[in-house]
Specification:
310 residues; alpha/beta; Rossmann fold; N-(1-d-carboxylethyl)-l-norvaline Dehydrogenase, domain 2; 10-stranded mixed sheet; binds NADP nicotinamide-adenine-dinucleotide phosphate
């Protein structure tokens, strides 16, 4: 196994804010930290759990990203140039002190989260002038119980063709993370959202992707995805009639034990990102006058599973 050893000339422990900062060095944040470290541009790490460094496994490689992971926003010296926010959507408010400390009028904040609402959910928490840039995160990564992270595919992001995108592209230039810039970001983001929405059925059933082999679950998935498609189109996404079938087919052709982060969160009794992955379809459906009866049931059950009471 190849090991990339820690050397951190840019890290936050050096008493100044590094040019690139990661808030939330979990599965996705640690992956971005690792790809930056591999090319000699180790970012500052800012999180909830103090760690000496990060350990990321990518195939046969073990990448050790030097820390420390700082946990006190008051210790931040000033804003960074590019900040990646990789906390869960349910953790944005709690992470707000980091956004205040690390962002400023010259900062581009790239939000590495699922959903189609990153700009509206994060913008209220940043200082004036900060550019908030959404993204679509395409790669699966898993945080293990010991804090290490297992990367399960080549890292890939899509950004909108918008102010700040070029700074993020530059920050990740030369790394193993592919960055695409899309002039039709809404369509890309909504396609990913449909995939995430359907994956909510895995959290509800407590089953991995093998569950989509059931005819009744497949029918339910298609009915749900048709609702999602109508809402996506009303929001300006250009997605074809074949998208629901394609998404279902992809789940059905995946390994039967393939999981999803919302199922992992359920199995660990953590809050679920039900609102940004499923609730959003019902909310925006209501705003557009589009009925979403399947989505309403799915959302209610996911919300209750996540938040109780009981
Ligand atoms: N994982 C995937 O495969 C994947 C794929 C596509 C998209 N996404 C999306 O990417 C986003 C991040 O997911 P993830 O899987 O990387 O989550 P994760 O592994 O749970 O990572 C979240 C990180 O944020 C930290 N954190 C929590 N509260 C914080 C706070 N108040 N201040 C600073 N840091 C805080 C957590 O610290 P602790 O260590 O203390 O918990 C953890 O390190 C989500 O929106 C998810 O849906 C994930």
């Amino acid at each position: 196994m190849a090991v990339t050893e820690p050397q951190n000339p840019h890290g936050a422990a050096r008493g100044h804010t590094p040019p690139v900062a990661i808030i939330g060095p979990g599965a996705i944040g640690a992956t971005i930290a690792a790809v930056l470290h591999e090319v000699g541009r180790s970012p500052g790490l800012f999180g909830r759990t103090a760690r000496d460094g990060l350990e990321v496994f990518a195939g046969e490689e073990r990448i050790l990203v030097p820390g420390p992971v700082l946990t006190d926003p008051a210790a931040v010296e000033g804003p960074a140039e590019v900040v990646f926010l990789a906390v869960k959507a349910t953790q944005i408010a709690a992470a707000a002190p980091w956004l205040t400390a690390l962002c400023g009028p010259d900062t581009v904040l790239c939000v590495l989260q699922n959903g189609v609402e990153q700009t509206s959910t994060v913008s209220p928490h940043v200082p004036p002038g900060t550019v908030v840039l959404p993204s679509v995160v395409w790669f699966p990564a898993q945080a293990e119980a010991d804090g290490s992270v297992r990367l399960r595919a080549e890292p890939r992001l899509t950004l909108p063709e918008a102010t700040g995108a070029e700074r993020v592209v530059e920050a990740l230039q030369g790394t193993r993370c592919t960055v695409e810039v899309s002039s039709d970001f809404a369509s890309v983001a909504w396609r990913k959202l449909l995939q995430n929405a359907a994956a909510g059925l895995m959290a509800l059933t407590g089953r991995r992707s093998g569950v989509f082999a059931r005819h009744d679950v497949a029918d339910l998935t298609l009915a749900y995805l048709q609702e999602c498609l109508s809402v996506a189109r009303a929001e300006g996404a250009r997605l074809g009639d074949d998208v629901p079938g394609e998404i279902l087919a992809r789940f059905q052709s995946s390994p039967a034990d393939m999981s999803t982060s919302i199922l992992t969160d359920r199995e660990s009794s953590r809050p679920l990102e039900w609102d940004i992955r499923n609730g959003v379809v019902s909310r925006l459906g209501r705003a557009h006058g589009i009925p979403t009866p399947v989505g309403d049931v799915v959302t209610t059950l996911l919300a209750a599973t996540s938040d109780g009471p009981g």
